Amino acid sequence: MLLSRCIQIERTGENMEQLQEVEQHIKEGDVEALSLLLDRLSLSTDYNMLYESAYLLASYGFMAEADRLYEVLIENLPDEAQLKIDRANTLMELGEEDEALLLLTEIRPEEDEYVQALLVLADYYHMTGLAETALSKIKEAFKLAPEEPVIRFAYAELLLDSGKYGEAIRLYLALKDEVQEIGGVTIVSRLAETYSAGAAYEEAIPYYEELLKEQVGPDLLFGAAFAYFQTKNTTRSISLLNKLIEMDPDYFSAYMLAGQAYSLAGDDLAAYNMFKDGIRRDEFDKEFQLSAGKSALKLGLPVEAEEHLKEAFALDPEYTEALITLASLYNELERDAELIELLSYTKDDSDDIPLLEAFKAYSNERLEQFEDAYESYRKAYVGMDEDYDFLTNYAKFLIEDGKQNEAIEIVKKMVSLFPDDEYWRDFLELQTDEEV
């Protein structure tokens, strides 16, 4: 919700007894006694008491009972716009949105409660995914009461949710000079979040640090650590993440980000150990397995890398990145039979990945399966026609296979892309001289 309904209830001596009875039945869970009491209260003309009872019921989650009293109140006080707003909120909680919207549209622009009705409508449209409609309602409310902090906050919240970070930040910054928090949300936390959401991490960091002076929670630590990571301040990021992991060892995202931070800092061993810590917390997380596999490769641990990569691929046979990394390892080690077998288990759409076709071409060539190699080279060329290493291998294969004319076309492509390559430039000139 964008806003919290906040009404101060003053209980008088006249209605205190009735309200205490309502609250007693609520706390005891005596639905039958509560229903009988509401039958009696519905006949009362003490509308203040009825209103406070309805509010009390709603605050405890007894929405149907609260709605019953709001309905009685509206029947007797049809011109009270606040009652329509309160009942509309209750009806929405009950899933009766159409009836709630009907009540809200009855509130006229000249009524004092009209702005409040707009806020409720904005809330509703926001929750139902109609962002532009929600924004239009907030904009209307903002035009009518631009000085109201609650309205500016609601407007900023919707802008943030819509990805309009610059506009949201301007509103939050103006609010920061007036209020510290609204609806239990601090303006400083929203500034940190909004700057981060807009990738302005340098600007977000001072607000995160301000928050960390007063409170330290897992989500706050992670948000701050992520901002520092994005600014390449790995030392501070890792420090915050280690504190987070100590506070909440099951905060899985912290292990991944910490591993990435160690990797960025050049400490591949620490990164590998952090990813393994993540795996120990959740062995079925394919991202941890892939990251551990890549770290193991950097450390020159092919056996461990293969184990992690195979596990990642087993967890998700459509995990393309794990497939490519494992296939790359097999290609580098020239474990050609295993590479061909690995790619034979994949879905047909893997044939659309040029790099995998290139690996198949290299393996088939080494296995002297030249027809299969030629077919894979041709498929891979569609997406790798600017890759120097691939073009070099392809050209050499064609030359060895006696496909001189095709090789020359590939070499011409290479010379146009890489004019400083003397080997292929000389090769092309030699072929031209021979033709002459």
Helix content: over 70%
Largest sheet, in brief, is:
2 strands, antiparallel
Report the sheet-strand fraction. under 5%
Low-confidence stretches: 1-13
What's the alpha carbon Rg, rounded to whole Å?
Answer: 33 Å
Structural class: mainly alpha
Tally of extended strands?
Answer: 2
Shape: elongated
First CA to last CA: what distance?
Answer: 80 Å
What is the element string, with H for helices and E for strands? Answer: HHHHHHHHHHEEHHHHHHHHHHHHHHH
Mean pLDDT: 90
**Discrete helix count:** 25
Q: For the largest beta sheet, what order do the strands appear in spatially?
A: 1-2
Present the secondary structure layout.
Blueprint: H1 13-28, H2 31-41, H3 47-59, H4 63-76, H5 81-93, H6 97-105, H7 114-127, H8 131-144, H9 149-161, H10 165-176, E1 181-182, E2 185-186, H11 187-197, H12 201-212, H13 218-230, H14 234-247, H15 252-264, H16 268-281, H17 286-298, H18 302-315, H19 320-332, H20 336-344, H21 354-366, H22 370-381, H23 388-400, H24 404-417, H25 422-435
Antiparallel strand pairs: 1-2
Helix pairs in contact: 1-2, 1-3, 3-4, 4-5, 5-6, 5-7, 7-8, 8-9, 9-10, 10-11, 11-12, 12-13, 13-14, 13-15, 14-15, 15-16, 16-17, 17-18, 18-19, 19-20, 19-21, 20-21, 21-22, 23-24, 24-25
